[in-house]
């Protein structure tokens, strides 16, 4: 029987964990959430929520994972034998499965747009070209299923290679490349005439947006963008050696997530404002507005190709963490079954994702709670799965693990340990419950 795999280096783990966090949440979701919630005030609240709430929960996942040294289900059984805490692991399995089923659909859209950009098929002439194109892409059953299938194949291929040779090796070149692409695109965006308005939107506060609604949206974005609540970070941390410093690793991942999110804003908003588009265009900002923006700038086709390559890389770094959760729980300690499990579960996820892929086309007449199948899958994971998972992980770290166990894992000074313990015991659970209740009210009332 093969031995359990491990990350070969601290930087490899940080890049893989940051990659899990930096995906559609940072590049697709953050810009349109900022655009529809006042820009700079949302950014400030997002940073505060990430440091004060997201980082402590992320650290809790790191502690549970490294201490358990097993998949999330087996890890919780080891840390709390005979108690039902292991259900947190199964919750991560189920919700990661669902997330990847519709996440891969968006990955397929990105592949479709990348191919169109490379073949110079994104040069619209009419005002409605890009909106019509987006609707055409997402409603074409053959195109969305092929795109979803190719994206799932790439994810399976990486995960089947294992931790050190698959996930870590891939993250070590994908993440630096992603950062380089971001810098190049941000420089181009910032050099456009009129770009200063986009910078002001991101960094000069309009305090009229400082309210509970914006704060709750920012907190929800923190959970989504850090990948906390589905045991992704528990899974990755379980492959860590004991000498790795968890505090600095969690801080590095959080700061990278904040930095990439702001970089995404610097790529998008200066260009959007410079060319007279609206920042509050919602989810279509990336697929409808950006192609129109890049069309109007010098070497726009090149930068558009670069952007969709960047978006694809970021989406893949998140998707591999979702599949790794499912695979690690599925194989338990039978590590020689990794490759087969990656293919089997990956194919199952593709099949489960087919209704989401078709929900804007042939299945567009099917609705659940007035939502499309795709939107419903997104809703039950982001409004139920992530908050509930984060809540129970926070409670487990705060009430089940002893102070002495936490001290051994964290190696923090007394003040920082005490502050972190207060947050995961009291502040984080209250914040999570508020977000959870708000999500329910938004749909049912």
Automatic annotation (TrEMBL):
Protein name as annotated: Sodium-dependent transporter
Keyword vocabulary terms for this entry: Membrane, Transmembrane, Transmembrane helix, Transport
Native organism taxonomy: Bacteria, Bacillati, Bacillota, Bacilli, Bacillales
GO cellular component: membrane
Pfam family name, one: SNF
Highest taxon above the source species: Bacteria
Transmembrane regions: 12-34, 40-64, 85-111, 144-163, 175-196, 216-239, 251-277, 297-330, 342-363, 383-401, 422-441
Organism: Psychrobacillus glaciei
Cellular location(s): Membrane
Database matches in SUPFAM superfamilies: SNF-like
InterPro entries (UniProt xref): Na/ntran_symport (IPR000175), SNS_sf (IPR037272), YocR/YhdH-like (IPR047218)
Membrane topology (UniProt): Multi-pass membrane protein
Keyword Membrane: yes
């Amino acid at each position: 029987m093969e031995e359990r795999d491990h990350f070969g280096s601290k930087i490899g783990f940080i890049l893989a964990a940051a990659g899990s966090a930096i995906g559609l949440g940072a590049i697709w979701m953050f810009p349109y959430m900022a655009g529809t919630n006042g820009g700079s005030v949302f950014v400030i609240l997002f940073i505060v929520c990430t440091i004060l709430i997201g980082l402590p929960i992320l650290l809790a996942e790191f502690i549970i994972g490294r201490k358990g040294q097993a998949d999330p289900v087996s890890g919780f059984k080891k840390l709390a034998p005979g108690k039902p805490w292991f259900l947190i692991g199964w919750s991560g399995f189920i919700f990661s499965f669902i997330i990847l089923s519709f996440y891969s659909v968006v990955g397929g859209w990105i592949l479709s747009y990348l191919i169109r950009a490379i073949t110079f098929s994104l040069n619209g002439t009419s005002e409605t070209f890009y909106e019509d194109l987006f609707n055409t892409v997402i409603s074409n059953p053959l195109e969305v299923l092929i795109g979803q299938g190719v994206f799932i194949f790439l994810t399976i291929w990486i995960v089947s290679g294992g931790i050190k040779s698959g996930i870590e090796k891939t993250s070590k070149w994908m993440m630096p490349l992603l950062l380089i692409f971001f810098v190049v695109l941000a420089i181009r965006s910032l050099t456009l005439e009129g770009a200063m308005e986009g910078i002001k939107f991101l960094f000069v506060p309009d305090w009229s947006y400082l309210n509970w609604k914006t704060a709750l949206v920012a907190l929800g974005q923190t959970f989504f963008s850090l990948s906390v609540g589905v045991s992704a970070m528990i899974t990755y941390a379980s492959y860590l050696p004991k000498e790795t410093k968890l505090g600095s690793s969690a801080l590095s991942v959080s700061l990278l997530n904040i930095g990439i999110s702001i970089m995404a804003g610097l790529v998008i908003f200066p260009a959007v404002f410079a060319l007279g588009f609206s920042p509050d265009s919602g989810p279509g900002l990336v697929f409808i507005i950006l192609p129109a923006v890049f069309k109007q700038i010098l070497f726009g086709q090149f930068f558009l190709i670069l952007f969709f390559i960047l978006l694809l890389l970021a989406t893949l770094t998140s998707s591999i963490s979702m599949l790794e959760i499912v695979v690690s729980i599925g194989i338990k300690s039978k590590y020689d079954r990794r490759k087969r499990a990656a293919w089997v579960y990956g194919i199952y996820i593709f099949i489960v994702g087919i209704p989401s892929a078709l929900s804007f086309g042939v299945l567009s007449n099917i609705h659940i709670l007035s939502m499309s199948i795709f939107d419903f899958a997104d809703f039950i994971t982001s409004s139920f799965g992530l908050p509930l998972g984060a809540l129970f992980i926070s409670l487990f770290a705060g009430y089940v693990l002893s102070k002495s166990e936490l001290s051994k894992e964290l190696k923090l000074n007394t003040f920082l340990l005490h502050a972190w313990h207060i947050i995961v015991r009291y502040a984080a659970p209250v914040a999570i419950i508020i977000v959870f209740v708000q999500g329910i009210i938004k749909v049912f009332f």
